TrEMBL record:
PANTHER family: ALCOHOL DEHYDROGENASE-LIKE C-TERMINAL DOMAIN-CONTAINING PROTEIN, YALI0E05731P. This is NAD(P)-binding protein. The keyword ATP-binding does not apply. Keywords: Oxidoreductase. Pfam families: adh_short (PF00106). It comes from Aspergillus cavernicola.
Length: 300
């Protein structure tokens, strides 16, 4: 387990050698992703970031702010709909035409259903497509670039490490059958799919550090967008404000996951008294998945 003070101290020691030189961010136009990208750029180091999202015209002010915050950074906006796998592949192809290697792939794009199953035009569940199918496609498509990186390559997926379950519908992964779709079922299914898939990819790509992270309750606008109109929102909102982590603290933790030598042995060196993190296979090096909960504790 790592304290927030230890996290901040490590992040303050990020250098040009330990920062990801080239990174891809999804889910970074809002919430934890936005706070993480903002925090990364605040280090004032030369980085190139591909920021993927929708509605580029609406994001112009945000992009301008990012670029002004770090004159050494190059922010490349790629517009696309990550809920569609054809679009996800197109975006990955675009990145592969521009880059020969990649240091970091950060993913937190997602959708919280208010209870009903919504399908994309490709026939997949919207939540499953954004949170699992699209992310796995990005990993597999961009792994050649990550494997080519000399700079501590990492994949960070922000979801729900620790909520895996053996009680999933093996004959209905997309939860299409009547009575299968629900928030609890969706959460444990996506967590399980993610951990199993990332574990397999980690074993096949030992040069790349894979991290599945559960950030806990974070006080972003996501919950308000989904449940703001519900009768219980006036009761839930104050509790969220009091108990949830701020996006800024969540971002510090994510930046630590991206840069610290605690995970895989390369990156910002550990402080005196700190020990290397353990993967789910109880190893200290890459080749297995690091599953990290909201207390920054490694899960086995």
């Amino acid at each position: 387990m790592v304290s927030i003070s230890e996290v901040r101290a490590s992040n303050a020691r990020i250098t040009q050698e330990t920062v990801p030189h080239t990174a891809v961010f999804t889910g970074a136009t809002d919430g934890i992703g936005k706070a993480t990208l903002t925090r990364l750029l605040s280090a004032k180091l030369p980085v190139r970031v591909y920021l993927i999202g929708r509605n580029g015209d609406k994001q112009k002010a945000y992009l301008d702010t990012l670029r002004q915050s770090n004159k050494q950074a190059q922010i490349i906006w790629l517009e696309g709909q990550l809920s569609l796998l054809a679009e996800t592949r197109r975006l990955c192809d675009e990145i592969k035409t521009r880059e020969t290697c990649l240091d970091a792939l950060y993913m937190s794009a997602g959708f919280i259903s208010s209870g009903e199953r919504i399908e994309t035009s490709e026939g997949n569940g919207l939540s499953q497509s954004l949170t699992y199918y699209s992310r796995i496609m990005m990993m597999t498509q961009l792994l050649p670039l990550l494997n080519a990186s000399p700079n501590n390559p990492r994949i960070i997926s922000i979801l729900n490490a620790g909520n895996e379950s053996s009680s999933i519908y093996l004959d209905d992964f997309d939860l299409k059958q009547p009575g299968h779709f629900g928030l609890a079922t969706l959460a444990k299914s996506l967590s399980t799919y993610t951990t199993l898939s990332m574990s397999r990819l980690a074993s096949e790509n030992p040069r790349v550090v894979f991290v599945h992270h559960y950030p806990g309750g974070v006080n972003t606008d996501l919950f308000k967008k989904v449940w703001g109109g519900k009768w219980y929102w006036p009761l839930f909102s104050p509790a969220l404000s009091m108990l949830a982590t701020s996006p800024q603290d969540a971002a510090e933790k994510v930046l630590y996951l991206i840069t610290s030598a605690k995970y895989g042995g390369r990156g910002v060196s550990l402080a005196v008294g700190q020990s290397p993190g353990l993967t789910m296979a109880k190893t200290k090096t890459a080749g297995s998945l690091f599953a990290i909960n909201d207390k920054m504790k490694e899960l086995q």
